[in-house]
Structure formats: structure tokens, C-alpha cells
Amino acid sequence: MATPIQPATRYYRRGTSRVLWVPTIVNKQSPTRAELDAGTALEGETGAMQGWQTTSGTVPTPALGSRFTPTVPGEITAADSSLTFWASKDGDDVRTLLVREARGFIVWMDEGDVPAQPMDLFPVQVTSQAKVRELDGAAQIMCQFAITSEPAENILIPAAAGGGG
Known about the structure:
mainly beta, eight-stranded antiparallel β-sheet, two-stranded antiparallel ribbon, globular
């Protein structure tokens, strides 16, 4: 009998996940705690998000000797991605941090900032700060991002200085 997959410890994302804006990370496969701590935590003002996943295409590899067309892995792409924040009546909000053309990293710690848990780093450039205008909704700013190179996925969150969490 096949071994069953490990059962997931299910969780609710709100109140657990962390999302950071980090201006500089030297090696996206191995960010330091100091680099992460120099970032800005965004989750407290994030009202919505879209995208932030990669997908892989396939390339057909037909051969004259068979009617079946096998495929091989092809390009890796990232979905159009955005974060929507609450706007402040005095204008002192995300617009001062995530300015158009700014380059940096969006870091996703889906299970929280827990050392040795996985996180994803998306190298990005801010492309817009769209004002969400709705009659009956609270004011929001949607920041859209270009993903500028392949994200580093499922890398381990480093421990805090001194080895603590």
C-alpha cells in the first residue's frame, strides 16, 4: 500500500501571514535576518492581494514516429501581481513607500515569521499606485508590480540574531 501524503496542519492566513517590502537583498536564495529586518512589514495595511504565484508552461516535442506528442517543461512565468492597501485621509500611506519605479523584494512568509519555515522572495519593480475609487468602499491604493526575475521559492526563513526566533 502506498504511503499517504503528510496531513497538513491547516491554518487561516489572516493574522498569520507576513508580507515584507525589502529594498535590498544581496542573494535572494539566502537572505540574511538583517536584510529582512531592514524591510517594512506590510500586512497591517494590506486589504487585498492578487497574483504572487509562478506557473510553468510546457513545450511539445513531437516525433514523426508516434502520434502521441510528449511535452517537456518550458518557461516559468509569474502572474500579474498587486497588493491593495488602505489609503490615509492625510495622504501619509503606502504611496510614500512604494513609489513608482522603486525596485526591491516582496517577501511572503505564509506561515508567519518562523525561523526554518519556508518563504518566497519576489524581485519586483513598482509599476503603479492606482487609487481604488468606489462609492461605498473605504479608500484604497492598489500597488502593481513587475516581477523582474525568477522568484526564490520555499527558501528557509533565517533565525534572528543570536539564534532566537
